[in-house]
Amino acid sequence: MISVRGLKKEYKTGEASLFALGGVSLDIKEGEFVAITGKSGSGKSTLLNMIGTLDRPTEGTVLVDGKDLSAFSGKQVAEYRNKTVGFVFQSFYLEPSYTVYDNVELPLILSGSPSKNNRERVEAALEAVGLISKIKEKARNLSGGEQQRVAIARAIVNDPSYLLADEPCGNLDTANSENIMHILSTLHAAGKTVIIVTHDPEDARKAERIVTMSDGLVVSDVENTPIPAQTEEKEVV
Amino acid sequence: MIGLECKLLVRTIVLIGLILTLFSSALLSVVSVVFDVPEGLYGYHSAFAGRLNLAAADTTIGEVKEHAEGWAFGVRAGLTSDVAVTGSKRYTLPVCETHDNPFPNQSVTTAFALMAENFVLVEESIGFRPEGEWPTAPGEAAITSLFGNSVGAKLGDTVKVGEREFLITAIIDSDTLDPDRKSLNAMPIRSAYLCVDGNEQLDFCYLGYSDSRLLRSDSVSLKEAGFTVFLTDATVAIYQNIDLVRAFFSAIAAVLAITALFILYCLIAMFYRQRRTQICRMKLVGAREGTIAGIYCTVAVLLGTVAIALGTAGSVLFNLFFMRLCSYLFEWEFASHFHPIVPFELFATMVVFVLILYAIFSKKIKNARIAEEVKHE
Question: Which of A151, A177, B178, B318 has its CA 20 to 30 A from that of B243?
């Protein structure tokens, strides 16, 4: 469970200061599929970054499974990013010169997983996103949709409890977006807690809970009956 | 992962080589000053002579052989090494080679040069075969048979150099040299090597006839026991200005060290800017600062090994330039024309380099903001 309490993030630029988050409190239960939505600059990505330890709050706490992230040491933060959460970004954030396999294997190497088991786990992750056939391709040679699927495979290869996705379909066309959302829904159905940040209402409606933010504050938090994502496997490039 | 990085980082080899060149030169000089080792950039060109002198001082022939083999290895590897070290003592020998070649048709060579060129101490069968016992204690000396025959000196005689007396315990039989090699050094050897048990001011003496054309009026000369001892002008010049020499090279060392650090920092900063995204990607999936820095440092070590070769070559050229310059400006003389870099010093340079790299890089990695990087990409 993720528990956010009174979270503030202040950016200072000279004399002026800007609150990206103005005191957000939120609970996300295990197994939920939450979409955080809002206009640009509403603080949704900042909130996700705080949950993912990519940024530090000015005030407030984020408790994940009862542990305060701000009290984590460098080693604990690294372990948290490696094993507890998986990240997916709009820009994919893959290592372009590495192969698909190398990209997906990286978290396993860093977690100290025995290399003899890595291939099996990498292949399983790539199977889950339908990219096993591209295992030897360089990441830079893949299409946007394929790169995003590799990013998802990398995010789930260490079997994290939480999947954090920041505008995962932001760079993709409709067909690829459908495919990515379908994969995320499938992962959610398999028991993962999925939190996506999106400004696209269509994507948000595929989640079972929609949190809307504005000016660094949560302005609505509603349950949603998810619209199933496109389930048929499309050949999208 | 390291293999991939190696491929991506090959272009930094030249820069690292440059840094190591500066570092190694600086480190050598700093170490020599800090630890009061009498060799700096000026002294260790006579490494082999130092070894020979060391043999006379406090080592056995077996140790000399080891040193000689080490030296030979260094030469074969393209490096040169001053391995004339036993315990905490280091011996430095100024080079005694005259500007005025008294034998225009023959190369002027001193006994140590002869030995150095022929590796005579590596294999006893082809090397000098001493009559008597190699000097093992301070106050003992070995001379060549040619020299002994010329002046009638024999085992047990005493040679007096200034206020010091030396017992001749060994006469090196020049005729046992390999004939082929001997022909390369045909001139009579009129030199002897005397142990002055580590006295930094006078480690090596060149003995010759008083009527030799090698003698110069301004040489330091002493006529004792039928021998004339003189130091070449270059040697005298160096020792009379030893403090100046040290200060000179210390200043150069300081400049080199600061320059090297500056270049190193710039290189790290440049490298960090290039790799920031990659670093953030690794942090994103759970890499710790130390792990990331370790990967890059490992790559740096691998590349540094290559760079050491370049750095060594650079150092040799760099010091050759100084040797030439000093010879021209001050009439100082250097016998060997390469710059010996001791493996230890190379290793120390590498360690210093990697530690600095690790420290600075870890700090930069720690400060890398993934959120900002993601936003920018």
Answer: B318
Nearest to B4 among A78, A94, A97 (CB): A97
Mapped onto helix, strand or coil, the DSSP state of residue B184 is helix
DSSP state of A33: E
Phi-psi region of B159 (alpha: psi -120 to 50; beta: other; left: phi over 0): beta
What are A63's strand-pairing partners? A3, A68
Cα–Cα dist B366/B358, whole Å: 12
- Interface pTM (ipTM) of the complex? 0.88
Give the integer Cα–Cα distance in Å for A111 and B286: 8
Candidates B283, B285, B295, partner chain A, best to mutate (most A CBs within 10 A)? B285
Q: How many residues does chain B have?
A: 377
| β-bridge pairing B227-231 and B220-224 | antiparallel
The angle at the Cα of A166, spanning A163 to A170, to the nearest 5 degrees, equals 130
What is the residue type of B140? E
Instruction: Tell me the C-alpha distance between A110 and A79, whole Å.
Output: 9
CA distances to A71, B114, B261, B293, B350 from B297, in Å: 29, 44, 17, 6, 11
Mean pLDDT of the B275-304 span: 84
Answer for the pair B349, B20: CB distance below 8 angstroms, yes or no. Answer: yes
Q: Give tens-digit pLDDT for A89-139.
A: 988 889 888 999 999 999 998 888 887 888 999 999 999 999 999 999 999
B352 within 8 A of B359, measured Cβ to Cβ: no
- What domains lie within chain A, and their CATH numbers? 2-223 (3.40.50.300)
**Nearest CA to CA, how far is B356 from chain A (Å)?**
21
Q: Give B276's contacts in chain A (Cβ within 8 Å).
A: none
Q: How far is B241 from B201, CA to CA, in rounded Å?
A: 11
pLDDT at A32: 94
In a 3-state reduction of DSSP, which class is residue B15? helix
Amino acid, res. B241: N
Nearest CA in chain A to B365: A74
Q: Which residues pair with A3 in a beta bridge?
A: A27, A63
- Nearest Cα residue to B24 out of B345, B262, B287: B345
Distance CA B18, CA A222 (A): 63
Q: What is the largest CA-CA distance in chain A?
A: 55
User: Tokens standing for A174?
Assistant: 């409709």
The 8-class DSSP code of residue A84 comes to I
In one-letter notation, the amino acid at residue A141 is: N
Cβ–Cβ below 8 Å for B282 and A110? yes
**Nearest-angstrom CA–CA distance, B264 and B258:** 10
